[in-house]
Amino acid sequence: MPEETSGKKQLNNFQQRVLVGIAGGALFIGGIYWSQWTFAVLFLALTLLGIREFYQLLSLRGFSPNYNAGIVLGCALFILVFLLQLNLVSLSALYALPPILFFVFISELFRKKEQPFVNIALTLLGMLYVGGSFSMLPILGFLNGQYSWQVIMGTLLLIWTSDSGAYFAGKTFGRHKLFPRISPGKTWEGWIGGAVFSLAVGYVLSMYLLDLALPYWLGIALIVSIFGVLGDLIESLLKRSLQVKDSGTIIPGHGGILDRFDSLLLVVPFIVAFLKLF
C-alpha cells in the first residue's frame, strides 16, 4: 500500500510539472511574441520576483539584505534600459545610476541592522545578478532598432535544447564528472552532447529566424553551451552554500525563478557583448 501511494504521488508530481510547464511555456512564449509591452511586463515581473527570491534565500541564513531598495532599484534598472531602447529617455539618464546605487548605502544608515556593509554588498549583488542580467534582455529585443522576438526566443530555445541534449547525452554516455563538488550529476559527455545539440539547433534557427546570420546563431549557441552550464553551476553553488534544495517554490513542480532561469542570467550579458562587439 505505501508503494502504491508513493507511485501515485510521483505520478501526480509529474503531471503537475507537465501541466505547469505547458501553461508557463505558453504564457512565456506569448508574452515575448505578442508585443514589446507584454515582453516588458513579463520580464519586469521576473526581475521583481527573482530579486525577492534571492534575498529570501539569504534571509534563511540570517543575512539582512535591503529588500525594498534592491527590488525597486533592480526594477528601475530594467525599466531604464527598456526606455532607452524605445528612445523615450536619452543616454544621459545613465548618469543617474551611481547616485541610485549609493542610495543603498544611505538607506542602510536608517535600518539599524547588524553587519551593514555585508547587507549593502548582498543587496547590490542581488541587483547585479538578477536585475542586471534581466535588464540586458531589452537590448536583445531591440537589436535592430525595433522590437523583435527572434533573438530572445532563439536564445531561450537554445538554452532549453542545450539542457535537453546534455541530459540525454549524460544519461547515455556519462562517465566523467564535470564538477562533482558542486553538481555531481553533470558529466563531460553530457556537456559535449549539449554543445553539439545546441550548435545543430543554432544552424536550424539561422534558416528561419533571419534577424541574425548563421555565424551569429552559431556564436550564440556556443555561448549558451559554455556559459549556460556555468550559470547552472553558479546557482548550484549558491544553493549549496545556503544549504537549500530549491531557490523557491513559486513555480509548482519546478522550484523557483532562479532554478528556472539560472542559465539565462549568465548567458545574456555574454550574448549582448558578443553581438555588440562583433
UniProtKB/TrEMBL annotation:
It is found in: Cell membrane. Pfam families: CTP_transf_1. It catalyses: a 1,2-diacyl-sn-glycero-3-phosphate + CTP + H(+) = a CDP-1,2-diacyl-sn-glycerol + diphosphate. GO terms for molecular function: phosphatidate cytidylyltransferase activity. Keywords: Cell membrane, Lipid biosynthesis, Lipid metabolism, Membrane, Nucleotidyltransferase, Phospholipid biosynthesis, Phospholipid metabolism, Transferase, Transmembrane, Transmembrane helix. GO terms for cellular component: plasma membrane. It is a multi-pass membrane protein. GO terms for biological process: CDP-diacylglycerol biosynthetic process. Its EC number is 2.7.7.41. Pathway: Phospholipid metabolism; CDP-diacylglycerol biosynthesis; CDP-diacylglycerol from sn-glycerol 3-phosphate: step 3/3; Lipid metabolism. Coiled coil: none annotated. It is an enzyme of class 2 (transferase). The chain crosses the membrane at residues 67-86, 92-110, 117-141, 147-169, 190-210, 216-237. Belongs to the CDS family. This is Phosphatidate cytidylyltransferase.
